[in-house]
């Protein structure tokens, strides 16, 4: 990725340009110390003078009023705030008319910013005051007062907090009175510029110590640059939070959100005092000290998938290269490319007006459809369809270009969604709520309606990243997520009636990804790279989960690495310095998943015998139990030395009825309540009581016996025997109540138990007989 720089031969301004701002993706306003406001049209390459300000107004900062206010959309910004050195800020219309001038500070007003909703304006000045104003320019409150000038200010993502500078310190102050203020020393020199991104919640700062730094919203340092030759005079986030730009003397740098540098340009501009990104994030403009306005377009972005590499060579041209045969295709577009995604055999490209869908099998005939709103901020792909996110909503399309659905939820803000907050599979869309970060909304892909009975997924802590698995049945779809404690959890997305368990898979997990071809999960865990070959093991037999993992040292990836993709058996990780590392994992677990999904149990056993790895046998054991295949489970557990489980599985095989087998399988997986429910629904009351006795759930065993008026004496007998073994006296009031005057007769109890077992056998055989009566004659003769 690099920057394509555009500079005019002769500057349009006579003095230094102090600030710039985009009205839409192709139109920019610039303000200069020559008192002129100039409009730049990038489509026609024309400039025009909008207004010449009075000679006593020297502009310092400019910010356009937000385009979208709640659900009300404007096609483009209609007015902006301009701060100046005379202590005033001015509300100016798009045509250049000064609507209002407000005395705001003693000394220059150094920065002014609208909040995201456009309901409040914040200004800071040389007098050290931070003030909040209404939309019409009425003073609401003085947020802070200090002895040093405040050079820069930024709103928090939810417009509930404000970040501002205080010499070498950064301060985050909530708007609520008496709320805790966060303050820390950020630089060794005076801080000149800050920016806070609403999508990734990261903070940028730049100072006279010639460094730029990236922080999280708790004041923890993510990245610190090497000292430059000159002070850093400007920093700005791209709207989607994936990139940021840094400006200095004769210097413009493009960086990744983690801090490392994509490109460094040295335009002849003097100091770049202000940087503004266009709304679509494809280009930026810089206000230069020599009167120039520098334009920089982001080109040479790359997308990779299997043997294909796609590069954005120009604003409207892409190059596709097949590395297997070195075939090269050029893709030409009518408008400039804004976003693209390459996955699952398709390249999806959004331009300013249209969406193009290419198949990797045929690059010549793309499918093209018009977009509702041009600025696509996110593209996500699944095997059957893809998701587009823009300022107006979330839209799901098939690869044939057919609109499928558009999920909505209360308070939805699409401008702040990114790939960590949205996840897509063939049947499910998961979206993390930004208003309450403990909540995940789950939608059916086909209809856009809430999944299951409409219950949301709620967690006890704030969630940072979510990912839905890609393969398998809809009813078994799982979602993995990382919370703010860096714990990794997994749960089912289907939400019918009972509360689904949220189970912890790991701790200190920084990034995660599901494989695109099978339900294998990988993550970077503290100092280890971990692969969960069969994450569902936690639902089946948690004891063997450690045996289903693959782990290797991750210290080579340095600090804050990120998993870019997990395709087939190859994981791509981006290190903190920007370099890509490719890791290949064993291909056998994916083959095992394939065999099991096709119920090829003999092939699965054969594969495990060939590979001779404990990990494979442990995965097969869990898969067999999950799919109720006892024979395979027995072989697999024997191979990993779990003898007690082999014996239990053998005992399950000898049970007379299908319901009993099912109940004991559920007990094996730890689902006691479900096991009991299966037996009660089948009318096997004694068996339901017996499993509670076996598990020493004495209260529940007695409750069932009393409720169904059977085997009360059996429960009391077993309880008495249990207490005698440990030499204890009965203290439970309910047991004392029912045991009063009752003599335990073990012969009678054994006879009753025998009768229950016989009854169950007879019932089971009668059901089998009925089933056979419905079979063809040949089938009945075979059974005989």
TrEMBL record:
Primary localization: cytoplasm
Keywords assigned by UniProt, alphabetized: Cell projection, Cilium, Cytoplasm, Cytoskeleton, Repeat, WD repeat
Gene3D superfamilies (alphabetical): 1.25.40.470, YVTN repeat-like/Quinoprotein amine dehydrogenase
Protein's UniProt keywords contain Secreted: no
Entry's localization field: Cytoplasm, Cytoskeleton, Cilium axoneme; Cytoplasm, Cytoskeleton, Cilium basal body
Assembly description: Component of the IFT complex B, at least composed of IFT20, IFT22, IFT25, IFT27, IFT46, IFT52, TRAF3IP1/IFT54, IFT57, IFT74, IFT80, IFT81, and IFT88. Interacts with IFT88. Interacts with IFT57 and IFT70B.
InterPro entries per the UniProt record, alphabetical: Beta-prop_IFT80_2nd, TPR_IFT80_172_dom, WD40/YVTN_repeat-like_dom_sf, WD40_repeat_dom_sf, WD40_rpt
Keyword presence, Repeat: yes
Domain IFT80 second beta-propeller: 300-588
Identification of the protein by name: Intraflagellar transport protein 80 homolog
UniProt GO cellular component terms: axoneme; centrosome; intraciliary transport particle B
Organism: Phascolarctos cinereus (Koala)
An example Gene Ontology biological process: cilium assembly
IFT80/172/WDR35 TPR domain mapped to chain residues: 616-762
Pfam family, one: Beta-prop_IFT80_2nd
Ranges for the WD repeats: 102-134, 184-216
UniProt function note: Component of the intraflagellar transport (IFT) complex B, which is essential for the development and maintenance of motile and sensory cilia.
SUPFAM superfamilies (alphabetical): WD40 repeat-like (SSF50978)
